[in-house]
Amino acid sequence: MSEPVIETHVEVDASELPRLTPHTHPLWWGVLGAVAIEAAVVANLLTSYFYLMAQNEVWPPEGVDPPDLLYATIVLFVLPLSSVTMWWAGRGSDRNRKTQLALGVTASVGLATLALVFRSFQIAAFDIRWDEHAYGSILWAITGFHFTHVVSAILGTAVVSILAWKNYFTSERQLGVVVDTLYWYFVAGVFIPIYLVLYWAPRWL
Amino acid sequence: MTDLDPALDLRRSRHDPVPEHLAELERTWLSPPGFLGWFTHVNHTSIGLRFLITSLVFFMLAGLLGLAMRMQLLSPLNGFLDPDTYNQVMTVHGTAMMFLFAIPAMEGIGIYLVPLMVGARDMAFPRLNAFGYYVYLIGGTTFFASLFLGLAPDAGWFNYVPLSNRDYSEGYGIDVWTTMITFIEVSALTAAVELIVTIFKLRVPGMSLHRMPIFVWAILVMAFMILFAMPSVIVASAFLMMDRLVETQFFVAEMGGSPLLWQHLFWFFGHPEVYIILVPALGIVTTIVVTFTQRPVFGYTALVLAIVGIGMVSFGLWVHHMYTTGLPLLGRSFFQAASAMIAIASGVQIFSWIATLWGARIRFATPMWFVLGFFGVFIAGGLTGVMVASVPFDRQVHDTYFVVAHFHYVLVGGAVFPLFAGLYYWFPKATGRLLHEGLGKWSCAIIFAGFNVTFFPMHQLGLEGMPRRVYTYLPEMDWTFLNQLSSIGSLILAAGFALTLWNVIRSLRHGADSPPNPWHAPTLDWATTSPPLNCNFARQAVVESRHPVWDWSRDGKRGVVDGLRSDRRETVVTTLLDARPQSVQILPKPTPWPFFSAVIASICFFGLIFSPWFYVAGVFGTFVTFVFWFLPRKREEVV
């Protein structure tokens, strides 16, 4: 064989590079990808809502009231509040204040659980079942979708808070906190368009 | 500091012993052998090959179903398949070719090649990769098995309501479709996220975005398309699942629902889907054109923009599947214009390839033959595409065999020919052996001839008014001769594919040993042994142009990354645009938890057919397995 031997020289020394970088770790991008998928699902659901609305002259159907505002509006404030506690927890984690982290995530789990309770009251008070009209179907589907997400965010964050109380997260090992926080912001934030569509579109449009 | 990299020493064959420093690295990256070990593999080379092999098995099975359909249509009023069976065979053929073959095959080839091409040691989330594979394997097998249990869906691959809702399709067939398709899309989505993050963050130092191989660009665009297209089919099939299972009214017109909502949601996915399959194939074609002409591609930037443009415009085309549903004139005009617009981007690519090929000393090996086959077949499909994009013409041939001919030209031309080109091109990479050239060229020629004999007559049948999806036709329609021609062609086509299958089996045992870079290709996938090392690269490279391997053999030197530990799995993370070294990612070891998660998720998805409570069970069941999956690693493994 006549191929020449290729000489190798070192241009990048990776032993100097950091191994634990919670804010630029590929997993952060991965969660962003998951959020993009979920956002696309929400966009499809809300578009379907408007499509069905456009197909029906009366929306909600005759004799059905738009869903009650009280509990949903409370949830609208409780969920962002839980994001604030989550953010506060993340700051604690960045600065290696372990109690702040543990308190913050626990408070978020508590607030989100409270939101779920309010949400359940309000679902119980829906004026229509899912099998009575397409309006009921889409209302229940979107509500159920978001409910499941809050449940899964609570479950995941509950694990994080247990680990936090057990002092697992050192300042180098806070990746789990960072990605959990990102997902939490999404679950809390996405309630805003859902709220506007489900509760205000039938009143305004 | 200067030394020799064994993986790059082009004179070294894969049988040579490796030096000491590589031995530990290879042990660290080893996939455990044995039957139980199989369920713990996470290396992308292993998972990528599994995707590819599984999808080719489904391709063969779905191809046999196609053959069965052609046998039924061999003569008028034939009794080879009864009408119910025909409907199931037709539906499973279409669905399997799209969801179980084409998308997973493209994902598989991306999963196998992208880390190699960007010089990474593995993908960003190896366990998620494994999870996606098991989901696909279990979902796909369940879907296909339904055919043999007589439980298969029978409403066509796009499963239109109201035919597919509970009033008109009793039994479990449609439920199998809705649950299993949703489930398999989960696997496509995990692969998409995986590919995007790997491409964004794990490129070797120096591989800025404008030095990325076109193939990697194509996979990136495909992954983004999956990300935004798949959610609509998931939403659509979730709605249909609920309509059938818990009596929601999404698609029931009397109850305020809308059957057209299904069509919008389905085609908002379904049209980009075609391009999800096509775009990676364009990447394969470009790779092969570059290697077999031994010159840089003409118009790199234009080509990248064309691929990105196709990705974007393809989301504005879905309504051209719905011209006959009574759309407003403005809507029809908009989508007709958008459909024609895609020809601009496709044209840019074709001209880039022609300019690259022009005057070059082309090496006409089998992969290049398949690429030439792609040009012929795909351009013919593109021409009929321009025809059906026009509203008046489309309304004439809608739901006829003309459309069947058109999309087989586009899909077989646009995906199968490039995929087979890629198979012949990368087979030596994955196995260390070359496929037989003579058999390969015969196979290509027979496939090309068989394909045209099968599908070209369908254009005429369609113009003569033969509707698609009919299990038979009457003798007085005068469609017999063309149908017979088509059926004979399908046998020739099958023989062509069988020849490649035989070539693969034969070459695995007796094929000639391949040198590390048999085609003298310029990309990093060839800068390691064939088959690749467990760790892919003994040393990760540092690149300075679009054609690193050509540079190295010209200059006789190359830059590498040093300082990665060999006692755990590490790969370099770089910045998104310029690929400057940023950090090091520690990748996980083999684990069985993704498999357990996939099994639990499968049981719950399948259970949905019978009871909605499986939804709740699924949420909690998979959560438990995820906790074990993500259970924090021991302190010494992360610090």
UniProtKB/TrEMBL annotation, chain A:
Signal peptide: none annotated. InterPro entries: Cyt_c/ubiquinol_Oxase_su3, Cyt_c_oxidase-like_su3, Cyt_c_oxidase_su3-like_sf, Cyt_c_oxidase_su3_a-hlx. Residues 1-203 form the Heme-copper oxidase subunit III family profile domain. The chain crosses the membrane at residues 27-49, 69-89, 101-118, 138-165, 177-201. The keyword Transmembrane applies. GO terms for biological process: aerobic electron transport chain. It is a multi-pass membrane protein. One of its GO terms (cellular component) is plasma membrane. It is an enzyme of class 7 (translocase). It holds the Pfam family COX3. Keywords: Membrane, Translocase, Transmembrane, Transmembrane helix. It is found in: Cell membrane; Membrane. GO terms for molecular function: cytochrome-c oxidase activity. SUPFAM superfamilies: Cytochrome c oxidase subunit III-like (SSF81452). Its EC number is 7.1.1.9. Belongs to the cytochrome c oxidase subunit 3 family. This is cytochrome-c oxidase. It comes from Citreimonas salinaria.
From TrEMBL, chain B:
It catalyses: 4 Fe(II)-[cytochrome c] + O2 + 8 H(+)(in) = 4 Fe(III)-[cytochrome c] + 2 H2O + 4 H(+)(out). One of its GO terms (biological process) is oxidative phosphorylation. One of its GO terms (cellular component) is plasma membrane. The keyword Iron applies. It comes from the Bacteria. Signal peptide: none annotated. The chain crosses the membrane at residues 51-73, 93-118, 130-152, 172-202, 214-241, 265-290, 297-318, 338-358, 370-393, 405-427, 439-461, 481-505, 590-608, 614-631. It is an enzyme of class 7 (translocase). It is found in: Cell membrane. Its EC number is 7.1.1.9. It is a multi-pass membrane protein. The keyword Transmembrane applies. Keywords: Cell membrane, Copper, Electron transport, Heme, Iron, Membrane, Metal-binding, Respiratory chain, Translocase, Transmembrane, Transmembrane helix, Transport. Pathway: Energy metabolism; oxidative phosphorylation. It holds the Pfam family COX1. One of its GO terms (molecular function) is metal ion binding. Residues 38-544 form the Cytochrome oxidase subunit I profile domain. Cytochrome c oxidase is the component of the respiratory chain that catalyzes the reduction of oxygen to water. Subunits 1-3 form the functional core of the enzyme complex. CO I is the catalytic subunit of the enzyme. Electrons originating in cytochrome c are transferred via the copper A center of subunit 2 and heme A of subunit 1 to the bimetallic center formed by heme A3 and copper B. NCBIfam families: CtaD_CoxA. Belongs to the heme-copper respiratory oxidase family. This is Cytochrome c oxidase subunit 1.
